[in-house]
């Protein structure tokens, strides 16, 4: 699933967040669901893009805020990038093909993962991004 993850809590600049995400992505192995949570503007999409680059996605990784699900093919496998911001109820996940996606054997990155509620796999790798009061552009990343 994940090899020697750089986990724990760390405060990062945007550039450091990008570097962390790329390294994290290089170490990911399918199947895995990565649950990304945090307030607006904490860098969830920046981190998801960086993870995709680390995994090997060469095409432009765009925010799936309105599409809700983006799919990328890489190294004979699939990366799904979901943004659940616009999901109001766990039942809405069924219409997205949620169960098929999380059981597909792919790498699945889920922004606003808490909105999946009990349907988020228990073995998901959870990453939380937080604003640090008085620190401007720095973010606290909690992974584990």
Description of the structure:
This protein has 144 residues and is α/β, with parallel strands linked by helices. The chain has a single domain, classed as Rossmann fold. 24% of the residues lie in helices and 29% in strands. The chain has 4 helices and 7 strands; from the N terminus they run E-H-E-H-E-E-H-H-E-E-E. Strand 6 and strand 7 form a beta hairpin. The chain is globular and about 40 Å long. The model has no long low-confidence stretch (mean pLDDT 91).
What would you say about this model in short?
Helices cover 24% and strands 29% of the residues.
Q: Uncertain runs with pLDDT below 50, 5 residues or more?
A: none
Query: According to CATH, what is the class?
Result: Alpha Beta
Number of domains: 1
Distance between the termini: 13 Å
- Per CATH, the architecture is 3-Layer(aba) Sandwich
Order of helices and strands: EHEHEEHHEEE
The portion of residues forming beta strands comes to 25-35%
Largest sheet, described in full? 7 strands, mixed
Indicate the mean pLDDT: 91
Structural class estimated from helices and strands: alpha/beta
Report the count of strand segments.
7
Cα radius of gyration in angstroms: 14 Å
For the largest beta sheet, what order do the strands appear in spatially?
1-7-6-2-5-4-3
Shape: globular
Report the total helices.
4
Percent of residues in helices: 10-25%
CATH-level-4 superfamily name: P-loop containing nucleotide triphosphate hydrolases
Assign the CATH topology.
Rossmann fold
């Amino acid at each position: 699933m994940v090899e020697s993850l750089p986990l724990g809590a760390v405060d990062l600049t945007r550039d450091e967040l990008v570097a962390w995400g790329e390294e994290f992505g290089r170490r990911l192995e399918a199947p895995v669901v990565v649950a990304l949570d945090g307030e607006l503007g904490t860098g969830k999409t920046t981190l998801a893009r960086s993870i995709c680059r680390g995994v090997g996605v060469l095409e432009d990784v765009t925010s799936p805020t309105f599409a809700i699900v983006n799919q990328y093919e890489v190294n004979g496998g699939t990366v799904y990038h979901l943004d659940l911001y616009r999901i109001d109820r766990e039942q809405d996940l069924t219409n997205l093909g949620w169960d098929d996606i999380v059981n597909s054997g792919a790498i699945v990155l889920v922004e606003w993962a808490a909105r999946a509620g009990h349907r988020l796999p228990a073995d998901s790798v959870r990453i939380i991004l937080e604003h640090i009061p008085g620190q401007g552009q720095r973010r606290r990343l909690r992974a584990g």
